[in-house]
């Protein structure tokens, strides 16, 4: 019987998921964190307590999704037994099988995000390439795409440094995205994004090609050590250039950090106070320094192995063509769609998941 065979195959996939998602280990870890949370004085260190609570919440969500699939399997088995006696349950069985297959697809996707920071939050920075007003407009379009995508995923998005361009678009956009697997998912966006369209800023309505670079960094947990000496950082304050209320625009609330040994500059101006902007800027700087050290380490390993690897940052990863035809194509995975407007409105899942599926197959 086809339905029974389908059910057996789905049951095996669910058992496999229990293994590759390390469900038993997650339950043990959650029990340990819950025990910590119940200890006297747990909330005396608010930052640490918040991090533990967030880790526990992520574990609880992952276990809950697995347990929901287990319950769906039981419901499908019950529908299969009933359908043998009453044919009217065949439709219910088909619904349960389809839903269980979707649940298992989602569990398998979750297994791709096993890196040390994949489950955590992300910092996205979009910078315009050459092209003046056109590049600034493209930067704002990408900023809007990522904020819409975050909204659609139920993630929290916070502007850290969104700088208006001269007359149109954005000169820069840095945002923090908080949500389960946010960094793991959004790693797919690192690189150069290319736009082809009739420029709205060109009086002769000529076709223009524009570029913008996207950087994606993890928000590092507090227990990750980064070689950052405060004495090596110059802190400048200045007046915010963007919208954000009367207080933001009439006080020196914006912060610029310059890491003197590396020359890395980080700015933050979208929080309400100078202290909040300084904390956010140091968060971004820690992530940049960590990423820099990891890149150096990887290059050294590649050299020892005799490998020459292309650095993905700075390479063109995706084309968005709006004229003379409509197409978004990821140049790594080959995933493409003709619905450019939907992608730019935050419909990124096919591109993001297509990239990770391609990466897992390499």
Keywords:
alpha+beta, 10 helices, 3-stranded antiparallel β-sheet, 8-stranded mixed β-sheet, 49% helix, 362 residues
Please give a structural write-up.
It is a single chain. This protein has 362 residues and is of the alpha+beta class. The strands form 2 sheets. Strands 2-3-1-5-4-9-10-11 form an 8-stranded mixed beta sheet, with helices on both faces. β7 and β8 (264-268) form a beta hairpin. Residues 243-248 and 307-314 have low confidence and may be disordered. The protein starts with a helix and ends with a helix. It has helices at residues 2-20, 23-37, 46-85, 90-110, 133-153, 182-186, 246-250, 274-305, 340-344, 349-361, and strands spanning 122-128, 156-164, 170-178, 191-198, 207-218, 233-238, 254-259, 264-268, 316-321, 327-330, 336-337.
Spatial order of the strands forming the largest sheet: 2-3-1-5-4-9-10-11
Q: Element order, helices and strands?
A: HHHHEHEEHEEEHEEHEEEHH
Oligomer: single chain
Strand content: 15-25%
Structural class: alpha+beta
Termini separation (Å)? Answer: 36 Å
Q: How much helicity do the residues have?
A: 40-55%
The shape is globular
Mean pLDDT: 89
Report the count of strand segments.
11
Number of helices: 10
Cα-atom radius of gyration: 24 Å
Low-confidence stretches: 243-248, 307-314
Largest sheet: 8 strands, mixed
SSE blueprint:
Blueprint: H1 2-20, H2 23-37, H3 46-85, H4 90-110, E1 122-128, H5 133-153, E2 156-164, E3 170-178, H6 182-186, E4 191-198, E5 207-218, E6 233-238, H7 246-250, E7 254-259, E8 264-268, H8 274-305, E9 316-321, E10 327-330, E11 336-337, H9 340-344, H10 349-361
Parallel strand pairs: 4-9
Antiparallel strand pairs: 1-3, 1-5, 2-3, 4-5, 6-7, 7-8, 9-10, 10-11
Helix pairs in contact: 1-3, 1-4, 2-3, 3-4
């Amino acid at each position: 019987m086809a339905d029974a065979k389908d059910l057996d195959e789905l049951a095996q996939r669910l058992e496999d998921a229990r293994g590759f998602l390390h469900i038993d280990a997650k339950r043990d870890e959650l029990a340990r964190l819950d025990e910590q949370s119940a200890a006297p004085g747990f909330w005396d260190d608010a930052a640490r307590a918040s991090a533990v609570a967030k880790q526990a919440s992520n574990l609880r969500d992952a276990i809950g999704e697995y347990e929901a699939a287990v319950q769906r399997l039981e419901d499908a088995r019950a529908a299969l037994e009933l359908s043998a006696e009453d044919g009217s349950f065949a439709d219910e069985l088909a619904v349960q099988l389809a839903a269980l297959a979707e649940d298992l697809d989602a569990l398998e996707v979750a297994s791709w995000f096993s890196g040390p920071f994949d489950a955590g939050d992300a910092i996205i920075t979009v910078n315009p390439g050459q092209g003046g007003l056109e590049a600034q407009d493209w930067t704002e379009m990408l900023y809007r795409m990522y904020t819409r995508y975050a909204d659609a995923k139920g993630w929290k998005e916070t502007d850290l440094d969104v700088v208006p361009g001269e007359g149109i678009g954005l000169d820069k956009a840095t945002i923090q995205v908080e949500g389960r697997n946010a960094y793991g998912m959004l790693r797919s966006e690192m690189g150069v994004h290319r736009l082809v369209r009739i420029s709205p800023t060109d009086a002769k309505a000529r076709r223009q090609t524009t570029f913008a670079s996207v950087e994606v960094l993890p928000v590092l947990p507090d227990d990750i050590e980064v070689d950052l000496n405060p004495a090596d950082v110059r802190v400048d304050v200045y007046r915010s250039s963007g919208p954000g209320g009367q207080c933001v625009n009439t006080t020196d609330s914006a912060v610029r950090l310059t890491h003197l040994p590396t020359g890395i500059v980080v700015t933050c101006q979208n929080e309400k106070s100078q202290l909040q902007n300084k904390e956010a800027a140091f968060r971004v700087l820690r992530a940049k320094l960590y990423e820099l050290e990891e890149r150096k380490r990887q290059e050294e390993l590649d050299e020892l192995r005799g490998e020459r690897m292309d650095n993905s940052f700075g390479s063109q990863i995706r084309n968005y063509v709006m004229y003379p035809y409509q197409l978004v194509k990821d140049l790594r995975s080959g995933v493409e769609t003709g619905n450019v407007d939907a992608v730019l409105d935050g419909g990124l899942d096919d591109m993001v998941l297509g990239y990770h599926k391609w990466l897992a197959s390499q």
